[in-house]
Design goal:
The chain is an alpha/beta fold. It has a single domain, classed as Vaccinia Virus protein VP39 (Rossmann fold, 3-Layer(aba) Sandwich). 39% of the residues lie in helices and 25% in strands. It has eight helices and eight strands. The mean pLDDT is 97. Bound molecules: S-adenosyl-L-homocysteine.
């Protein structure tokens, strides 16, 4: 299976703090409104759509999309994270269908099922990210929007996402990320193109350590989101 058990363990060990906005998951809470709006814009709204969130973790984005009246399924391979997600859903009264299943297995089970597929901050934790991109493409219905968020790989992302975020600012626990597994936008676009997804838009996500404010900007050199469209018809 396309999974690194050590990566899963990192998230499982701290899963009980997933919804604590002062925990190591704080950055995910803080970026959530920004990414939610961008995803909704790219998808032309979420209401009434079948949405799949791949690598959903404790459900921060999945719940937010369900609040926008999407029918959301969240999948992950961390049993603990899914347990936290389900409990939080009970508390908040927001319905999300959480399933312990790999993206590739889901693709076999439900090809073409989803109008929107999201996969955020997950590709840089799996052994074969291209395989996850392929699975997301299979899961997408014709014309669907597929959105990925990950980290680019260059000297600046090493300085900011590893040294800055993990060692200087302490935004993330040390060892959260392995810089060598970061994915450049061009690489992600290539995985997607081969899988039958057309690049629609890319945006950078920046963090200002002085104001502690995240923003969507053109600079894709560290964190970025990329939206793709699945072709409406099979192409020759
Ligand atoms: N997408 C969520 C969580 C990001 S944290 C968000 O942005 O809010 C990364 C998540 O990826 C964790 O929940 C972890 O369990 C999951 N993950 C890591 N490797 C995985 C794999 N191979 N398959 C599925 N999920 C995986």
């Amino acid at each position: 299976m396309n999974v690194d058990p050590a990566e899963l363990a990192k998230f499982s060990d701290i899963a009980h703090r997933w919804w604590d906005p002062a925990s190591e998951f704080r950055p995910l809470h803080e970026i959530n409104p920004l990414r939610l709006r961008w995803i909704a814009d790219m998808a032309g709204g979420l209401a009434g759509k079948d949405v799949l969130d791949v690598g959903c973790g404790g459900g921060i984005l999945a719940e937010a999309m369900a609040r926008e009246a999407a029918r959301v399924t969240g999948i992950d391979l961390s049993d603990k994270a899914l347990g936290v997600a389900r409990l939080h859903g009970l508390e908040s009264g927001i319905e999300v269908d959480y399933q312990l299943i790999a993206a590739e297995a889901m693709a076999d089970a439900a090809p073409g099922r989803y109008g929107v597929v999201t996969c955020m901050e997950m590709l840089e934790h799996v052994p074969d990210p291209a395989s996850v991109v392929r699975a997301c493409a299979v899961l997408a219905a014709p014309g669907a929007t597929v959105v990925f968020a990950t980290l680019s790989r260059n000297p600046k992302s090493y300085a900011l996402a590893i040294l800055g975020a993990e060692y200087v600012l302490g935004l993330l626990p040390r060892g959260t990320h392995d810089w060598s597994k970061f994915i450049r936008p061009s690489e992600l676009a290539r995985y997607a193109r081969v899988a039958g997804l057309d690049l629609h838009a890319v945006t950078g996500m920046t963090y200002n350590p002085l104001t502690r404010v995240y923003g969507l900007e053109d600079d894709t050199s560290v964190n970025y989101l990329a939206a793709f469209r699945k072709a409406s018809r099979a192409r020759a």
